[in-house]
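ARCHIVE ENTRY
Sequence with per-residue tokens
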Amino acid sequence: MSAEKSSKKNQSGSLENSEPDFLTVGRLQKPHGIHGEMKFSSLTDIDEIFETGLELYVGPEKKEYILDEIREGGKRFIIRFEKLENREDAQELTNQYVYIRKQDLPELIEGAYYQHELIGMDVLDESERGLGKIVSIISTGANDVYVVKPQDENQPDILIPAISSVVQEINLRNGFIKVRLPEYY
């Protein structure tokens, strides 16, 4: 995290020039039943984080709720927050995004990274020539693809498949990723 922080907040709820404080982990759907339950779509690959007692934050104001119950309900989950007791309470949260504080994320095994950790990292080729910075990540299902904005803004973005034959090193501490570009570059 950057030592310098602006006091101005951006739309993600984070201070500018820093890592995000909140990460989007899901979206609430419509109410389910009459006791405050809701359908919930997870936007993460790590559904194990959703345990009872977890603090979640809902909507653009990031209002805090405690997860009281969660169970699978088809392709989605059925959840209930503490203090949501009826369908009308749940209805007010319909279609809202759900966030978690970054510090509440579980630690990953060595060699695994959260996407937000990679955004903004410098990308170097094998000869350590700077190619640009990662500006976004596309999840394709087979593998992620890093979208790299070149240092020369007149050049098109570089799409780098996040596969072991291409990504040679990820160095979070020093803020760079070293890649072996495919032959077509």
